[in-house]
Amino acid sequence: NFDYAVSLRGPTACGLSLTENSVDATGCRFLRALLPSDLAGRSKGGQAQNGSVDVLDLLQGWGSGVGTYDDFNTIDWVREKSKDRDRHREISRKRRQSITALLLSVSDAFSGWLLMLLIGLMSGALAGGIDIAAHWLTDLKEGVCLNGFWFNHEHCCWNSKETTFQERHRCPQWKSWAELTVGVTEGASAYVVNYLMYVIWALLFSFLAVFLVRAFAPYACGSGIPEIKTILSGFIIRGYLGKWTLVIKTITLVLAVASGLSLGKEGPLVHVACCCGNIFCHLFTKYRKNEAKRREVLSAASAVGVSVAFGAPIGGVLFSLEEVSYYFPLKTLWRSFFAALVAAFTLRSINPFGNSRLVLFYVEFHTPWHLLELFPFVLLGIFGGLWGALFIRANIAWCRRRKATRLGRYPVLEVAVVSLATAVLAFPNDYTRMSGSELISELFNDCSLLDSSKLCDYGPLAKGGEPAGNLSEGTVGQAERPAGPGVYTAVWQLAMALLFKMAITVVTFGMKVPSGLFIPSMAVGAVAGRLLGIGMEQLAYYHHDWDMFHGWCSPGAHCITPGLYAMLGAAACLGGVTRMTVSLVVIMFELTGGLEYIVPLMAAVMTSKWVADALGREGIYEAHIRLNGYPFLEPKEEFVHKTLATDVMRPRRSDPPLSVVTQDGMTVEELEGLISDTSYSGFPVVVSPESHRLVGFVLRRDLVISIDNARRCQEGIVGVSRVIFTEHTPVEAQGAPPPLNLRAILDLSPLAITDHTPMEITVDIFRKLGLRQCLVTQNGRLLGIITKKDILKHMAQMANRDPDSILFN
Amino acid sequence: NFDYAVSLRGPTACGLSLTENSVDATGCRFLRALLPSDLAGRSKGGQAQNGSVDVLDLLQGWGSGVGTYDDFNTIDWVREKSKDRDRHREISRKRRQSITALLLSVSDAFSGWLLMLLIGLMSGALAGGIDIAAHWLTDLKEGVCLNGFWFNHEHCCWNSKETTFQERHRCPQWKSWAELTVGVTEGASAYVVNYLMYVIWALLFSFLAVFLVRAFAPYACGSGIPEIKTILSGFIIRGYLGKWTLVIKTITLVLAVASGLSLGKEGPLVHVACCCGNIFCHLFTKYRKNEAKRREVLSAASAVGVSVAFGAPIGGVLFSLEEVSYYFPLKTLWRSFFAALVAAFTLRSINPFGNSRLVLFYVEFHTPWHLLELFPFVLLGIFGGLWGALFIRANIAWCRRRKATRLGRYPVLEVAVVSLATAVLAFPNDYTRMSGSELISELFNDCSLLDSSKLCDYGPLAKGGEPAGNLSEGTVGQAERPAGPGVYTAVWQLAMALLFKMAITVVTFGMKVPSGLFIPSMAVGAVAGRLLGIGMEQLAYYHHDWDMFHGWCSPGAHCITPGLYAMLGAAACLGGVTRMTVSLVVIMFELTGGLEYIVPLMAAVMTSKWVADALGREGIYEAHIRLNGYPFLEPKEEFVHKTLATDVMRPRRSDPPLSVVTQDGMTVEELEGLISDTSYSGFPVVVSPESHRLVGFVLRRDLVISIDNARRCQEGIVGVSRVIFTEHTPVEAQGAPPPLNLRAILDLSPLAITDHTPMEITVDIFRKLGLRQCLVTQNGRLLGIITKKDILKHMAQMANRDPDSILFN
Predict the structure, then answer these.
(1) Which DSSP category does B165 fall into?
(2) Which of A720, A797, B253, B485 sits 20 to 30 Å CA-CA off B6?
(3) Which residue ranges does the record assign to the CBS domain (chains A, B) (predicted)?
């Protein structure tokens, strides 16, 4: 529409359509009146230009700020998309005029793809760097490589020729801290020294992380996903995706992961990818100047984040679609997929895991599952759902406490204490000492005969056990065996690790360091799943004569895969915490690479979601959004209450009447008075105060800037000048100051609904069109206004009144 | 809103909320005034009920038809969703009152899942049945099994003990027609007899197919996807998804596939699955009574269709999301996925392909691809794009010709002629004689050493050729070899097959038999790709000293996989025809089961889409939608023209003024006159003809039904009775007939936009909210109305004026 077109044409197409321009000393911008031809053509007959040319020119200055947003404000999607279409039309129109313009138009069309390529490359490279650095620092807690301190344990021993595959973790070049300082590798003193060094390094890393975050980029803490969801829904948080946040988040993420805290790097990687996206947006005017277009790019970037986190490009795209994005057109789907693939392949060519695999946890199971196993799978789902719901409650309660009490004032101390506790408690237990992703890898792993880990320490086959006929080829030689002493130790340690992880994760998530939830949640689930799996396996071994095992688990057959149970447990817990569904199943499917296990996965994830939803309908990200009070209109939940627009709109019955601007009856002074008396971010413009017939809507920010500019730059504008919003500027009486025509900043197409419109429809309109405000009319008269904030407030009220209204939706 | 609530409560919740009811002889329905409590509570103070109770009761009759739609009409999404939320609220409200109601509410919540399960099971079973039957009938064209005529060739020889794996296609039980009739298996006479029988069977099958379609279910022809897209966007075509269509489409699909026509079963399977979905919807009131909810189910059903067609559940869901669906909430995503999985596993347990694989074309390639190969891959993309665009143009031109000329009047003859031509031309060439899916399988196949097909007839290794060092394990022994005579024959035949398929598919698609496009498109691409692949392979063999092969294709290495080229060609052609992107890549990825080839796939599909879009922006389905003139508002294309609502709305400047109804100034006679004089499907209700201030909107159908009912059943309603739409019924003068209050059918929340609203925003609002019509106001006065049809007409006009405006979008 008219005004948007103008406010846009200033910043983007000015140099193309206007031949001369200059800026005077006061900062005003005078542009010789060469209006773009289509603009003149639009105003039927051209009369409109008579009075408003000066204003149009005035508003076209680059610095005027009309059409931009303040920090912590909501964008107007309709306006932004309109701006982009205007820009696009301008380019299309020019295309036929010259070769340069044609080239510009082609480059404009492909700039989106180029941007995706850049984001993919950069995010892939950063993710690779983070992986390598975190791996190195994690190993530094245990020892150092003599060949060069920059080698990690594995790399150090790779270079050594003296090691065999079996002994790949022991080589003379790698020295533990005890070996270096007291010269012994075994015994109590070595243990104490290693313990001490582990704790000291962990403290150092976490302190550095929290210090850097506090000092340079406060936005770098947390997982970032709640904020990104809010930003994608149309909120502005300046600097949240800036270059400082990117740099500091990347560094502190490495430190936080290396410190051994119970956190993951997946959520923060989404934030890092979005920062890359936002920064690269500045290279292209199309995306720099348009908040809606930029959000399309950010949606794709969040897909990239998950793609590099798990090596799961399809899962990443679905994650962005299902969990993060607000506005996800099909074009974005296709571009996200491209970017996610580029990122995954960049990561693969960096090869941080040293196994040529894209995925974080590569597993291959060979044993088919039996229908009866669905029972333990559903149990895992219930566990995941319960844990998810409880975790969210506990974490939110803890975060509330942090906000409300003195705890919140000492974030550095908090991190130090939690980190100390984590390190001290984690070191004695093998399964907590290793990093979260190593733990999950180990638990997902199916024991082959060559495996030397404790978890695979099975006893010899019982006598008479011979492979049964129904084995698939992959399982020959992997018959069910009794658990050895190693397995019993492992079970004991895993149980301790489970309790520890469950408790420590609650206090860790939300601290002032970058912290993701995916890995800790999956770790809890994987431990629980593996324990259940081992239990089932031993049950099947010792009691294969039971009815339930009859027919599918004969003696000597390999019928139960504890690794699969671990995988399902991980999926169930992650599902319970985040309430992801399809994307989670697809990520897990990409991790294992087989359709074979999709039914168990579905069963576990579905059960988990149902159980968790029954106990509390918000996922962790929504809960944090609500905790922080972000203005986020959840697109998934339906509004189920039977209220009308008239119940929500302002002014209420008892309030003073709605502040309106009349289209030709107010002076500059009156307007300034209205602006200073109220704090509304916009005013409806009506024909006259009596009729209350709606003409348009004008934004406070635009009004302030325009009046200010006019007073400084336009001759004859004084306090008593009339401000008019009509198409034709009326002729003023002799002696009166010239009027100020502000039709250019008037939104002539504000959306209006009737007072009888049900709120469910109103909420739908707000969500789908991305509105900031909506006017309410009754029988054609303007009655009030509903803003996004009013709706959020109303929804919160209704939810409090009837908390389980959504349960069976 | 008020009126919707009423029209709904009649059909669904009537028995629950109203204690007594009876239907009198005239069909009127009298309900003792026991209004649902929340309804009474809504009308602040209850005065509203005074005059309108009778009308409310009247409209609550089951048979009244208020709130339903005529055939070939567009549904009102807002109203339907509103209805569903009312129903939902009613159930939630009752939940706490009794155990029965609680159980009802739980069963209501889970009915969606149950429905998905049923659709999955049924569609999987039907797809399995279709596969088996089509396979059997296809083989019947060549011969018959002596053990039982119901065995197909493969099955027949499986049962025979005398065959080896190599000779699995020859067994004494299977007799070709020549063997049975003239007693010889070789020679000219045998060839002639087999040829003749092949043609006769083909003719018979295709005649049966077209006869059944014509006689019993005309909607069963074609692929059905254009119509399903239209239905999902909110159009009503009664019977299109009915049980007759299902039965006939299933049977004729088998016949059409077996007849050897150049068509596939994938599109029709989507139609079949949607029929299942629609039929099962009738089991649940929730879905039977609500057009919007039913469309959610149909979206899921179309995912099921692709899932069973290709054994690709994720691809199916993405296909539904990207290509078919209009309104796809996240809840549907999750349910679609569930249904698609159920269907895939049902199909697998039926095991129609006899290989325990879910997928139609299972391939596993072992050779990595080289960066330089991207060049031929992009070439395939260009071929695919060109062919896609040309095919669409040729097919649309042919269909137009069919519609315009006498050709269209003889569909049975047309099918017979095309079928005769296909059979006569196809028999002599091995690659056209086999069915489309067999051909694709064969072309995708990577030659192993054991393979005996012509395509794998390679000569011995050249001297000095020894396996190079850079081989992956899978390729040992598969070194590049010179093509043998078999390969040369195959190349020749494939080239002929390519030309034949390209020509015959153009005339086949659109005939009055069920016909899908996926398989023929893929076949064309696969042939082209295989030819290019063989060319590249031989080039690499004979010229491995060329610079381009240097370093990656040393003598004796296996560096080029012709099967991969075939796969990429198939994807490129399918992409060019349908313009699918992500879903296509995912389907292909699910077919091959490896992330390894996603980059080549992306390159080919992306090139193909770009090339095809440059030549014509519509995919085949959109082109057919436009050809048939369905009212479909394409959600993918952006409206780029700079027109305003005032340019599109009716009445135009020269037209008579807008027909409106006043809220309290018209009599029954005047209203009836208005209805008979005009053909609009609804009328705005205004305060008075002078002020033109909008009160609401009333639908013609509702108005007709209500007046008719009132005249029959309500005492004292005569021609001069006043019709009022206000909340309070005014007291009439002494002697005047009682007024008829129709506020219950008044939509109090019609959406209104201003005349200055740009059409791009208007189109967006129509798309996103699923509107049927929208009112246009100027300064608070009602000015005109825009319907979906006006928008479609306007878009067509603008597209004609500026045909390539969308090209660089």
Answers:
(1) S
(2) A797
(3) 649-715, 745-803
Asked if B772 and B76 touch (Cβ cutoff 8 Å), the reply is: yes
Q: What pTM value is reported for the model?
A: 0.83
pLDDT of residue A345: 83
Tens of pLDDT, residue by residue over A480-527, are 677 788 888 889 999 999 999 999 999 999 888 999 999 999 999 999
Residue type, A552: W
Paired strand residues for A686: A662, A694
- The mean of the pLDDT values for chain B is 80
- Taking phi over 0 as left and psi of -120 to 50 as alpha, with beta for the rest, A304 belongs to alpha
Planar angle of CA B548, B554, B558, nearest 5 degrees: 105
The answer to whether B259 touches B209, Cβ cutoff 8 Å, is yes
Burial A744-763 (b: 16+ CB within 10 A, else e): bbbbbbbbbbbbbbbbbbbb
What are the residues facing B753 on neighbouring strands? Answer: B776
Q: Are strands B773-778 and B752-754 parallel, antiparallel or unpaired?
A: parallel
Lowest mean pLDDT segment, chosen from A29-43, A341-355, A561-575: A29-43
**Tokens describing residue B765:** 């609002």
Q: In terms of DSSP bridges, do strands B143-145 and B174-176 run parallel, antiparallel, or are they unpaired?
A: antiparallel
Chain A residues lying within 8 Å of B581, measured CB to CB: 333-334, 337
Spatial distance between the Cα atoms of A518 and A524, rounded to a whole number of angstroms: 10
Q: What is the CA radius of gyration of chain B?
A: 32
pLDDT at B575: 94
pLDDT of residue A33: 32
In the three-class reduction of DSSP (H, G, I as helix; E, B as strand; rest coil), residue A176 is classed as strand
B678-683: Cβ within 8 A, 24+ apart: B681/B73, B681/B772, B681/B773, B681/B787, B682/B773, B683/B659
Tokens encoding A634: 């959840």
Neighbouring-strand partners of residue B650: B785
User: Is the Cβ–Cβ distance between A678 and A659 less than 8 Å?
Assistant: yes
Interface mutation target, options B749, B765, B802, chain A, most CBs of A under 10 Å: B749
Closest residue, chain B, to A804 (C-alpha): B92
| Closest residue to A751, CB basis, from B78, B92, B753 | B753
Cα separation, A691 vs A141, in Å, equals 76
Q: Which of B77, B334, B777 to mutate to test the interface with A (most CBs of A within 10 A)?
A: B334
Q: What CA–CA distance (Å, rounded) separates B66 from B10?
A: 10
Cβ-contact A728, A688 below 8 angstroms = no
* A606/A602 Cα distance (integer angstroms): 6
- Chain A residues closer than 8 Å to B592 by CB: none
Which chain A residue's Cα is nearest to B638?
A85
Burial group, residue B731, by CB count within 10 angstroms (0-12, 13-18, 19+):
exposed
How far apart are the CA of A635 and the nearest CA of chain B, in angstroms?
Answer: 9
- Which residue reads 């996922």 in tokens? A619
Nearest Cβ partner for A756 among B1, B581, B768: B1
For A630-763, list the strands marked E by DSSP: 661-662, 666-667, 682-686, 694-699, 722-724, 740-741, 752-754
